[in-house]
Amino acid sequence: MDQSTTFVTLGTGGGPMQQETRAQPAHLLQVGGMSILIDCGEGAATQMKKAGVDFRNLDHIVLTHHHFDHIGSLFAILGLSMMTQRRDPLTIYGPKGTAQIVEGLAAACDVPNDIGFGVPGQTLPHPRDFVTVQELSPGDVATIGEVTLTCCENTHYRGEADFGTPGHISLSVRFDTSDRSILFTGDTGPCTAVETLAQGVDLLVGEMMDVDLTMSRVKANYPDMPAEREAMIRTHLSDHHLTAEQLGELASRASAKKVVAVHFAPATVTPDTAGTYAARIASVFEGEIHMGEDLGRY
Prior knowledge:
The chain has helices spanning 44-50, 74-83, 98-108, 110-115, 127-130, 192-197, 211-221, 227-239, 244-253, 274-282; strands at residues 5-11, 26-31, 34-40, 60-62, 90-95, 131-136, 141-144, 147-153, 171-176, 181-184, 203-207, 258-262, 288-291, 296-297.
């Protein structure tokens, strides 16, 4: 069987606001006949179908963190799997808190499971029957078929000085296959741990944020926003996300061969502006650069 590796950008929009041209964050790693869903934003099952993968054939989901724009379709996949009478195991990987979320969604399936199809005596498999959760800690290594997954904490929630202390964490994930190495940053700010994990990768798929443009649109949409709220949003966007130049610097320091930028705020990366952002990345990175599009294959 062909074991070649492809990364499919199912949803390249950054949440939480919906976009007409970009779906919420979700991606596929395809290795031979196996597909791994990486993050699970709203509409992920539909985007998978457009990419030629039926959610019923999905055996592995990897969550980088628990912001809603990255997990919004998890309930749908569990419930639809139940309604289509899934029996095969489904393993969900993610940081601490994943088991709590999955159990909550499984509990929410109790009522539709009881209802079934309204046929007396007919029962549906419950998500608790087919779902297994494996929570990941920084430095963990997991084997998924022929794929080796390695993860580290990133700075989407907190600075590196706070790594190792109690609290929720956000992960960046590296996938090594027989023919390629791929680093998915998830959502992160500048982070030496991510740089270390990404060393020598063939493909770096990384988020990119235009802080000034995004803030100008936030202020235009909410002109009466309190100053402290505006400052909080700017701090989050600046400290917990990457600019085009920071993404390029990460790729350069990691000696990555190719970069795909994703996770774009509404109306930032368009056909008219994509070249400008690519040039900003190229100002500090000499490798191949792509501005991600939904259903792109890399």
